[in-house]
């Protein structure tokens, strides 16, 4: 802008740019008919951003550049809806048996949609007319939302909540580009306009997002509806902006300072405002036309880009609506017919097993391809061993499948058995020969009960418990570097994720072997838009990981391995009872503990009593710890650590508290030692001598350390001891103290 440009010119220019951008938003997101390229759009966007940066006072808070607001919020405020957001009564298909029974009684066979017939009759009776004009439209499987515009601007957006009060989710809704923040003044909207509709995630975008999440080791969503609901609950609009949400209007709420006299007038207004309306839409004036429309919609709905589970039938005339009135929760002038999910038969060709990011082993049905609810289905989850056995599913059987939430396929039941009751039950353990299909690690069976009292059922699931399983690397990494574990968070979860994504890490221990230059060249951005980690950060990571390797005590390392059942406190207790990982792997304490039955008390066991083992460590912890370290996979972890020169030591070793108290007359009683550098014997042996003499050995130096026993080398501990003025002694001096 030149100096002579007046401020009103600038303001006008900014308003024009904003309007232009919103216009193109609408063409792109609502009409799906863009007129300019992404690049041209970006240029306009940048131009407006620049002007707003230069003239912040002129910047419109509802500018297209400000859809994603600043900081995350702490929680959602509540708001009372100006008019309650009602529910809608459901109508269902009736069963063949019911149709038979009615036919027998009345001599007439009703259609499957008999409940629609009854509903329409109620309308006719209530209004006293033969023809009742209604609309038929898809029931969108999304999350209901109310958008309130005042003076042409989006004042707030709220969820349905309990129908009377909902959560204010404006900052999340503003990120949805198909929802205008400013209404076109030419469109003639009333002063106050409440548009109601559904926020949803388009099917294709949902599938893509789930795939991406899965690859990144993030949990996936069961269906688009859950994913939408979960997204709208996020407190950080920047996260919401990354998710592909969309909006369709299906109803009118509060209107002030203007009039919207009919459904048609409302739809015309939505068109003028560029708000997507619910389509396809049928008008019907007779019962037969209603049934035709409902059936036609069933044919068409799978081609829509969102999930639908029904047809909403609404009386058109406002006066008729009022005459029919409301029940306490729903209008009498509307109903939703629920389509039963489409079910198809197909052959179960094979069962394969998938390893999830948490190690859960999920059996998957490999199916002969079949078209269900608009897409070809080739695979369906079988959930777990119990699911397979309860439904008696076997390879070769003909099974009935449907899509849950109209999108995720599932096996409902067996229609025809290949081998009629062979009596053989599916066993995940036998099927996999006891090994994870990805890493050959040990698998573990877990039992959970679900269901209500009296009707509980046991569900058997299986997990790969190998710390090094590549399928689990992302989630394992998260625990490994976390503050409560090795605290290498300095590398940050983004770096960790990128290391996995770029294939530099197959298991968490690989982190210790990535060369510094490779780290420096790690691309944290995208291929088109690279952003390197850089030398300085790489050097910092190398430093942090070395410190973790040398100084993190045993308890943190145990916890870092994410062994089943072994949480933070169990890790500390294991570290109190053992000096290092080898000792744990060969632990007689744990072996004894493992044999306890429910009801057996540790205090009553002669071998265990002296250890005064805390409640966090019981038979289950003992078993899963030993199972892990004694498995091939666990042995590999120990070997790998040895190769890396990592040998974490306990910093709270005090196995027999009773004995320690009685050891007052021993030469090293009450003294704490740390051992470093290379000595004449393995550290274990030297540590054993110290503890035998009543002393304690820990893994890292603190001001509570009494002596550092140092051999050759041992640089960082030596430095720290000097800094903290902890006396440094050599082996000979130790020997003389031992006497
Ligand atoms: S009309 C008073 N139309 O279903 C009836 N609702 O209504 C007002 N829904 O959570 C609702 N698609 O958000 C209507 N085409 C549609 C709909 C629809 C989905 C949702 C609605 C509410 C539930 C019950």
Notes on the structure:
The protein starts with 6 loop residues before the first helix and ends with a helix. Helix 26 links the parallel strand 21 (707-710) and strand 22. The protein is globular and about 110 Å long. It folds into 5 domains: 7-68, Helix hairpin bin (Helix Hairpins, Orthogonal Bundle); 137-338, DNA ligase/mRNA capping enzyme (D-amino Acid Aminotransferase, Chain A, domain 1, 2-Layer Sandwich), CATH 3.30.470; 343-443, Nucleic acid-binding proteins (OB fold (Dihydrolipoamide Acetyltransferase, E2P), Beta Barrel); 470-552, Orthogonal Bundle (DNA polymerase, domain 1), CATH 1.10.150.20; 657-739, 3-Layer(aba) Sandwich (Rossmann fold), CATH 3.40.50. The model has no long low-confidence stretch (mean pLDDT 90). Strands 12, 13, 14, 15, 16, 17 and 18 form a 7-stranded antiparallel β-sheet that branches. Strands 2-11-10-3-9 form a 5-stranded mixed β-sheet. It contains 27 helices and 22 strands. It is of the alpha+beta class and 739 residues long. It is 36% helix and 19% strand. 2-(butylsulfanyl)adenosine binds at residues 86-88, 137, 139-140, 144, 160, 198, 250-251, 278, 312, 331, 334.
